[in-house]
Amino acid sequence: MGNMNINSASVEGSAAQIANAANCFQIRNLSSQDSRSKISANANGKRAFQEAQANMQAFAVALDQDAANIRSLNVAFHQYDAMISDMLKNG
Predict the structure, then answer these.
(1) Cα 11 from chain centroid (whole Å)
(2) Which residue has the higher pLDDT, 20 or 1?
(3) pLDDT tens-digit map of 14-54
C-alpha cells in the first residue's frame, strides 16, 4: 500500500478560503424602497429580494459548515495517523 501524505497547511488554507468566501454572502438591506407604491411589481420585487437574501444566508452557512468539516477531517486524519503509527511501533 502506498504512502498517503496530507499537507495540513494546504488543507487549512483551503478551509480558510472557503470560510472567507462565506463572508461575501452577507445579508444586506434593500437600499431603496418605495413604501407608497401600490403596484404588484414593487411588492414582488421586495419579496424576491428577501428570498435572495435568505438563499445567500443559507449558502454562507453551508460554506461555513464545509470549512468546519474540512478542518475536522484534517484533525481526524492526524489522530488516525498517530494511532496507526503507535500500532506499528508497538506491534
Answers:
(1) 14
(2) 20
(3) 999 999 999 888 888 777 766 676 778 778 888 999 999 99
Distance set, CA 8 to CA 14, 15, 51 (Å): 10, 10, 38
Per-residue cell: 71? 478542518
pTM over 0.90: no
Q: For residue 53, give Cα distances in angstroms to 3, 58, 66, 81.
A: 45, 9, 20, 42
Q: Are 42 and 34 in contact (CB under 8 A)?
A: yes
Burial 19-44 (b: 16+ CB within 10 A, else e): beebeebeeeeeeeeeeeeeeeeeee
Kindly report the length of the chain. 91
Q: List the grid coordinates of 31.
A: 437600499
